[in-house]
Amino acid sequence: MVHFRNDKILISSVAGAGAAATTIVLFLLPLLSSGDTGITYRGYVSENNIYNNSLYKLSIAYPPGWKVLEDVGIKNSEIGSAFGTDRLSFVVVFAGPVQDNFATNINIETNYMQGMSLEEFAQNTEKSLASTFSKNNFTVLDKGHTEINGRDAYFITATLEMEQPIKNELVILERDNYAYIITYNAMATTFDDHIQEFEDSLSTFEFL
Q1: Which of 19, 108, 168, 188 could bond to 91 as cystine, CB 3.0-4.6 Å?
Q2: What are the DSSP calls for 26-88, one per residue?
Q3: What 3-state DSSP class applies to 188?
Q4: What is d(CA 162, CA 109) in angstroms, rounded to the nearest whole number?
């Protein structure tokens, strides 16, 4: 999950560690972008708001007017040492409208599933989030199986209390024992304002 606040990003990342999905706790780090477009070296953005990433072999349309940010991640040697790296990155973040210093956003991350099934990974993700955000009243509103472009997927919709109530929906897909996690984050009061844009983007997601 990614939460934007002014020139900072509040990030939590679901990453595979050992036999379970482990949630990396919240960190503050500077907003990373490249020029006005936010486009860096990995992806290509077409004139039709299509984001293609040849490294992760995925494609998705993003809402018109939203900013594209790559190389947004966590740099922390103590946490990263558990994963054999000092940097944990999101594939891409699409940053949308800002209200009350919070930017609605859609982000994608990918994690090794350690041989778990899609449902097992989703259940471990839910448990990790509940544990990490136990003091933030993390509450699952809905969850279950779904389908994205003919592929099996699993979704979790939840709320948590940060500086303001946050609502998010994450959708997990699997390819070659890697989980692709697409998350929509918004303030609870504005979640419904952009859910259709998220669903429209999801409907275009495909592996290359």
Answers
A1: 108
A2: EEEEEPP--TTTT--SSEEE-TTSEEEETTTTEEEE--TTPEEE-S-EEE-HHHHGGGTSSEE
A3: coil
A4: 22
Secondary element (H or E) of residue 138: none
Phi-psi region of 177 (alpha: psi -120 to 50; beta: other; left: phi over 0): left
pTM to 2 decimals? Answer: 0.78
| Residue 72 token pair | 């947004």
Instruction: Give the pair of three-digit tokens for residue 10.
Output: 């509040």
Q: What pLDDT sits at residue 40?
A: 45
Cα gap 181→45, rounded to integer Å: 20
> CB within 8 A of 106, min separation 6: which ones?
62, 63, 66, 93, 94, 96, 182, 183, 184, 185, 198, 201
Whether the pLDDT of residue 3 is over 70: the answer is no
* Cα atoms found within 13 Å of the Cα of residue 138, Cβ hemisphere only: 16
Q: Give me 175's structure tokens.
A: 């390819």
Identify the CA nearest to 25 among candidates 174, 129, 113: 129
pLDDT-derived band of residue 117, with 50, 70 and 90 as boundaries?
very high
Higher pLDDT, residue 41 or 129: 129
The label of the residue with tokens 């790559």 reads 70
- In 70-150, which ranges are E strands? 73-75, 87-89, 92-99, 102-112, 139-148
CA–CA gap between residue 129 and residue 36 (Å, rounded): 33
